[in-house]
Amino acid sequence: MFYRARLQAAAALASLSLLAGCGLLSDEDSEAKQKIVVGTTSEPSTLDPAAAWDNSWELMRNVFQTLVSFPTGSTRPEPDAADSCVFTDRTSTAYRCTLKEGLKFSNGDKLDAEAVKYSIDRITTIKVKGGPLGMLGSLDRVETKGDDTVVFHLNRPDATFPFILATPAMSLVAPSDYPKDKLREDGKVTGSGPYLLDSYVPGDRAELVKNQGYKGFANRKNNAVTIRYFKGSAPLVDALKKNEVDATYRGLTAEEVVSLEDNKDENSTLQLIETVGADIRFLVFNPEDPAAGNPAVRRAVAQLVDRDALVAKIYQGTAEPLYSMIPKGIAGHTTSFFDTFGNPSQQKAKRILAKAGITEPVAMTFWYTTDRYGSSTEPEFGELKRQLEASGLFKITLKGLPWKKFQEGFTKGQYPVFGRGWFPDFPDPDNFIAPFVGKESVTGTPYNKTEITQHLLPQTRQESDRGAVSKQFEQAQNILVDDVRLLPLWQGKLYVAAGEDIGGGERALDPQTVMQMWELYRKASW
């Protein structure tokens, strides 16, 4: 039998607490003794928060603490390691946090104000390219006041700063185990989060055990979690069907999702939980490349890409076309790329190139990662190649690499065009614009656009009412359309597949689309 839960964005969080309290669930003490095995195709690229601005956050959220975080059901940051946090001025330039009493790291060291300052200062000292430094552009300095108080002094108003502190990139680390000026590279973790990293085998698994000294908001419904890393979605789903994995997050292909939804396997006892996603996919054009650096070439690509066909053929309803960098469901969303380019047109693209003096097919290489976003990525790029070459205007070569090597390449500016995915750091339009512009762009390619970085973003960050900044973000997206340095393709839906005896999947994904492993539990009876 197949169990299916479809959640709408507005109703999901309201219904979750009722579901969790359902009388069908077994005694909590019995459930807590069970280990949960979770499978994913998203292996961490680093264990050091100072280098993490990617899906490494999945593991970090569960083994580290941040000052503030997103408890289940919350869309605004609330205290975690902190007892309280507040802006101390009306201009949002000084943010003060007071720590909980008695916090300790897993090595026994005290988690005090100096440790918080040390953790944040490491990011600005090490300056990992493509790392989370780009999130701290508004931070001037960190001040400690006694053992329990930290004040973040900002160089400009930034109402989004609490959201930034809630990201796993701002995880608190033990100063005695993490070098001040370089990354930790021994494959170990010293944190204060809900779980301890008992062991880690890159490419294979991470073993998490309950942290008995944890003081935070997480209500852990299991004692231990094994995270297994798979190279592709097929072996992941096979392991799920064989009960070798209890639940999955990230990596299901569209075909696998559709198969589960249609209940094609009559013997299946799996449940599929769907939530509205804010993750996006887009192309990045390198301005230093002779072809991709030509605005006419970029505009011609934008004129040819058929998002409807891409989503229909490759993602079969598990994604939808995206015409701006800010997805649906986030304030400031527009359809600016469609408004500018309209439907795909070979004739319009040809005129764009001819006007720039380009009459021969443009040769370019498109790069993608083979193991970060699931097995659909390769056919997705195959469809992009087909669309562009069918126009007779382009000759596309495709190349794929595992994420770690792929990331090394794009941070060094080696790729003319490459595909990126973005899972939101926090649910705010700022997080779909700011990371991609400025000298520290997460794409690895500086994108200096002063109208956005020096005018529009600063204006929005003075406004604590985030729903009142749509106009500025619409202007920013129009600028992105004019440049076509970034070309949005689609936004996805999120799915958690799990065995019928696993509960908590509805509550497991936070607003950053990071899985909170502590929400999963094994039902002892039905």
Architecture overview:
It is found in: Cell envelope. Pfam families: SBP_bac_5 (PF00496). Its main location: other. Residues 77-440 form the Solute-binding protein family domain. This is ABC transporter substrate-binding protein. The relative contact order is 0.17. Mean pLDDT is 89; it is low at 1-28. Strands 1, 2, 9, 10, 11, 12, 13, 14, 15, 16, 17 and 18 form a twelve-stranded mixed beta sheet that branches. Helix 8 runs antiparallel to helix 11 (346-355) and helix 14 packs antiparallel against helix 15 (470-483). The protein starts with a strand and ends with a strand. It is an alpha+beta fold. It folds into two domains: 3-221 and 501-522, Periplasmic binding protein-like II (D-Maltodextrin-Binding Protein, domain 2); 276-493, Dipeptide-binding Protein, Domain 3 (Dipeptide-binding Protein, domain 3, Roll), CATH 3.10.105. The longest helix has 14 residues, at 113-126. The protein is built from 15 helices and 20 strands. A hairpin with a 3-residue loop joins strand 9 and strand 10. The radius of gyration is 23 Å and the shape is globular.
Strand content: 15-25%
For this structure, what is the CATH homologous superfamily of the largest domain? Periplasmic binding protein-like II
CATH architecture of the largest domain: 3-Layer(aba) Sandwich
How many DSSP H or I helices? 15
What's the count of strands?
20
Query: How much is the average pLDDT?
Result: 89
What form results from the Cα inertia axes? globular
Helix content: 25-40%
What separation lies between the terminal Cα atoms? 14 Å
Q: How many structural domains are formed by the residues?
A: 2
Structural class determined from secondary elements: alpha+beta
CATH class of the largest domain: Alpha Beta
Protein name: ABC transporter substrate-binding protein
Family: Belongs to the bacterial solute-binding protein 5 family.
Domain Solute-binding protein family: 77-440
Main location: other
